[in-house]
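Before going further, it is useful to explain how the protein records used in this thesis are read. An example of such a record is reproduced below.

***
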Amino acid sequence: MGRKRSESSAQGRHHGKSARHTKDADIDFTDIPELTDEQLRKARRVGRPSTGKAKQLIAVRIAPELLAQLKKLAGIQGKPYQSLMHELLERAVKKRAA
C-alpha cells in the first residue's frame, strides 16, 4: 500500500496534475430530483455562525516537536490543539500585562 501523497509536496502536486478531472458537462444529473419551491425556501446556508467575535487567521511557524507536544497535550485535555494554543498565549499575555 503506497503512502498518501500530500498536495503540498512536490510529488503530490505532480500526482494531482496527472489526475483526470471530470467536466461539469460530463456529469449525469438525471438521477437527482430537482428541489421543490418549499425545499428551496427552507434551505439555509451552512457554515460558521456569525458571533461577532471572529478570530483572525494567521500563519505561525512552530518547531515540529513543539507542535507534536501541543497536539498531545490538547488530546489529553480533549480539545483542539489550536484552541489550546490560543488559551496558552492568552494566559501568557495576561500574565505579562499584570
